[in-house]
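Continuing the series of single-chain predictions for the mutant panel. This is the parent chain; the variants come on the following pages.
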Amino acid sequence: MASDMFEREGGAASDATREALLQAVLKVSGARGHRALTVEEVAAVADTTPARFSALFTDLEDCYATAYEKWAGGFARNLLRSCRNHRNEAAGFRLAMEWMVGYTKAEPDTAKGAIGQSPLAGERVEAARQELLERLSHAVDNAGVESGSFHPSPPPVTASFVIGGIAWTVESTMRSSDAGSLAEQAPDLVFFAVLPFFGEEAAWNQRAAMKTRT
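Parent structure:
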């Protein structure tokens, strides 16, 4: 599942090594913590050498930021695909959460490295992180406009507030705990997401549906 988070860039050996390093830096960040990253360990996990790492990236921050930027695009694409075109729009929030929980369980180190550690990784990563959150917020807003399903329409800041709140919870959980803990919180996160758009009854229904899947 992790490999489809990354855009393919060609078939040369250098491209394969570069992609291996991008995946390795997220995994090591998840396993060790962003501040404990070393070139030597990232290179070893990628089955290459520190010299090869230095030929491809300026430093660890450059490698991690490049990896996160590519990962974020794939994450958004797969998350939105998981809930697109569902006949019950309220269920889309639950389906997105189901996908996220499944992903964090399938790729725990990569998920912890990308989701949990990104707030610690500097300005370039923060810009990419904010772009990801904005993309998800716009998707929520656009879904409501296109379907006409938000009755009454919530304030314009609602999507950003909901996505930001969920992101903070998920990031904190993935930084300090694991996917099992995220799965336990998922029903309440679904309730929080659905409530302002579809009302209390829909929120309780989707929370109950999420509990049967975690």
